[in-house]
Amino acid sequence: MTAPSTTPRQPFVSVAPKVGLIGGFDGIRGTGVMMVLVGHALFMYVESWVTIVDTFFVLSGFLITNLLLQEARSTGTISLKKFYIRRGVRLLPSVWLFVGVWLVISTVATLVGFEPLSLKYVGQDALAAVTYMYHLFFPNGLYAINPVSQSHRTMWHLWTLSVEEWFYLVIAGTVLFCVKRHLVRTLMFSMLAGFVAIGLARWYGYTGLAQDDQGMLAGVRLILLQRPDALMLGVAAACLSAQITEERAERMRRPVLWLAGLAIVVWLFMLNTSSELVEKLGGPYFKYLPDCPELGYQLPKDMGGDVCTAYAFSPRSGLLQEMYWFRFGHTVGALAFAVIAFALVRYPTWKFSTFMSWSPFRWMGRMSYTLYVWHALPYLLIIAATGGEEASLGMQLARTPVLIASAFLISLPVYYKVELRVLKAKMKYSSEKQALDLTTGKMVDVPQAGVAGNDDGPAPSSEEDRTGPQSAS
User: Does the structure show a pLDDT above 70 at 455?
Assistant: First the structure.
């Protein structure tokens, strides 16, 4: 008898080409953040623009996983310490400064007796934001189950940042484990299974766990509206790409780009199928969520009158009658963009990539994280001073350019005086031999770059400086 082999499995090695500067991704970020600015100004009229959140989550999962697999190939391992330092240096300063400014404003408001901006409410937001618990206590969709709590939120958009920070917390160690044990394909199928499971749950009207339990934490009841499946899909797409050589990708070019072209059409369709503006023009329209509290359905008179209940979405109730946008829009939008993201990375000469690489788009893309964090401050104040969300359409249209201008005015100094300076601090935490010079937008050689354990290396390479949550619904 032949003795069983005791040779350990070799670590997984990505066969995909190195991910460098991808101009199309900057363009996606740039146009995406402009959609955020317009969407938060005219939210009820372009509600399905929330698909841009799924887009950013797919993009983040795809890039971060690609870069981790790339680091494992070039250095033999993944430095968890450096990964977390890079993420912290990149994301924390702008948010902490933003929270600090809000605390100053709320202190003044408390002293003068202005209750809506008092420390009582702003302090809750600040604590949830800096501990990355915002998506648990004040999640997306909170207005549907607790409109009173939602009305007191000043940092409502930071739920996306919290979701991504939890993703960053687990992804590096997970990828390292899977690389060492050659389980990257298993990781890919696991992430795909999670994506499908969450998509099916939303299709059947579930928004989270124990969604009918009013005593349950809001973020648990609404967890499926926080779109963790989009991050999972991004990870799966990166794992797939890592198994496709450049030669094989070139042989697949024609069918993949045809599919990517179709994906663009589907992506754009998902962006505009819960839009009252499209509805007014005679286009297709699906309401995002039901109007009544508890994410329920208006029960017939003979079944309890005007009582709303989460059971109404459940198959067990037999009342799954209306096709709300959230049931399919997030899933289809994320899936379409995953195809687009793969094509942008593997086929840089693709016409759509060239279009999205237009310099104004890319400039806004570099500004996107700062705009994402800071736009909420002037938006809240200006909207409150001009009639709130109940203002007429004419007023909302008139104030939209003012809101967008205010977002840039507050973000530009933060970007140039804080963000770029902070990014330089990342120079010593690289695990790669090239870095992205954010002042020129070009990849540069960094002679001192070492292996993953070298704490004296330079900045993170390629696209990692650009990843991070950059939108909110």
Answer: no
